[in-house]
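Let's practice the habit of predicting before peeking. Look at the sequence and jot down your guess about where helices and strands might fall. Then scroll down.
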Amino acid sequence: MNMPSQPDRAPVRAVLADDERLMREQLRKRLNEIWPGLEIVAEAKNGQEAVDLTREHQPDIVFLDIRMPGLSGVEAAREIAQLPQDENWLVPEIVFITAYDQYAVEAFEQGVADYVLKPAERERLSITVARIQQKLAQKHENGGGALSQPPGASLQQLLHKLTAQLHPEGRRPYLQWIQATVGQTIQMIPVEDILFFISDEKYTRVQTESLEALIRKPIKELVDELDPAQFWQIHRSTLINVKAIAGVGRDFRGRQLVSVKGLNEKLEVSRSYTHLFKGM
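Done guessing? Here is the structure:
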């Protein structure tokens, strides 16, 4: 299955991450056979390298082994989803590599992300390649500039599900309380009362209807500790309680803004997450 010739389009670029050198070589060989136009720009031996190389090369696709030393593929995917984006690059398509059938959960089949079973068999890899090519072609035809549109909240839910499968005995329950600084005091704030979290370089602001507090925990940690069905990420620095969304509009520059119930404040939705509000 070859990618059709498209001279006016930049080549699709990918990063491969697997701690086993032979598996990287085998996947690279198979991809070259099935998708000769794909450019492998870098290879990583662990999850942290995968994050760093994705930041450096800004690929369209990242192939991540689920089990790697240090950061797992699931943890690396979560960090990749938090990388800064701009009009020329969005979070890449994620393809998980696994030796275990039980990780090929229903969410993969729903198109949130894709998977390849070890060893990379031609037939299954061809299906993955076809799906990715279709996603990238649709994005290009829609005039989106960047080639990839991340699945946002749906990807977060898939990552939570995979984390629970990887660590069935050690999965911590979602946060129920936040310990935060309010003025000169420390308060315990029920998570269900929080309207949104928004971070700057040092602190994360915790906002309820009646108070504003500060914590030192960054958004990328909160994403993993909060129920993804309750809190949606709408920006790399912002999480909002779904129940606190009053509506979504646009400003004069065309940016999507979320109105918050009980407050006059509006929160910006980054391009990576505008699809969450397509029906609004």
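How did you do? Residues 204 and 215 are 5 Å apart (CA to CA).
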